[in-house]
Design goal:
homodimer, Arc Repressor Mutant, subunit A, elongated, mainly alpha, 9% strand, 58% helix, DNA-binding, 6 helices
DNA sequence: TACAAAACCGATTGATCATCGGTTTTTGTG
DNA sequence: CACAAAAACCGATGATCAATCGGTTTTGTA
């Protein structure tokens, strides 16, 4: 085994620029530093170098993957948005202890952006999960 | 109006000691700095002053309320755990954009700690919400 | 009123993000 | 094959914030 610590579930803190870059790459979903700069850097009046550092940092954090295209790197998300968000949500939930279900329920309730369709989706997912959970004997 | 920025929904960043203090006070649910120190400070080998600073910080952040009992302050949570967690979860959800429902679904799915009963609770809450949501015309 | 307990203040340390300048590496082309 | 341009890489700086504690002032109460 080559990993010293199994960081599978530890998500590093993310700054606002880092998040902006991620969000952009989830849409694109693949770009060079130059392109990212054009898309979100110019409007912020920051240099290409800053964007590049951010891409590098996200790469080191394993949130982006990259590959050479001719002589420039192209970056792409390493994790799906839902995956990352889920990780962060679970981190919050476990960090503050207490009852998970009621916390989640409160989260849903506090959300002012849940429309009819979204509720439907969630309900379906829950029902789905439940049957599978029973089969898999979720503790 | 006296407030410069409506911080209603902005939750300040919380360190590990701050969270520990909050978690403790949700259990207690009211204590002096001395008591908090005895409960969670001693085990960490930190001074009463450190605990007091933390209590003060949480008070300034409006997460604790306090009142004098004889000459010492007693602190108590200003927000319920579910409330705070919900705020943080929603912050994460909105920060990363994308589809809320699928992100929440992924969160539930990624959780390995949801048991049969918890799922039940959540489902009930959703059903409940839905009817109310329709009545309130949630966008 | 004296004193012990607690609040208050301010300084220090240590992370971490954001930002950019300067240097090295790579590569396409004349 | 040499060279100029483009990109990666490295390292420094500034800002913010949590955590920590020592020292000083305030305040009940015996």
């Amino acid at each position: 085994m080559t990993q010293d610590t199994p960081d599978k579930l530890a998500i590093p803190p993310l700054g606002t620029l880092e998040v902006a870059v991620l969000v952009h790459l989830w849409r694109v979903p693949e770009a060079s530093s130059k392109e990212v700069h054009a898309a979100i850097g110019v409007a912020r009046g920051i240099s290409v170098n800053t964007v590049q550092s951010t891409l590098e940092r996200l790469y080191r954090k394993k949130l982006l993957k990259r590959f050479k295209a001719s002589h420039a790197f192209r970056y792409a998300p390493q994790v799906a948005r839902e995956q990352l968000v889920a990780g962060l949500v679970n981190e919050v939930l476990s960090r503050f202890g207490g009852d998970t279900a009621s916390s989640l329920a409160a989260s849903v309730e506090a959300a002012n952006w849940l429309n009819e369709e979204a509720l439907h989706t969630l309900e379906a997912e829950l029902k789905n999960m439940r049957t599978r959970g029973e089969a898999l004997h979720v503790r």
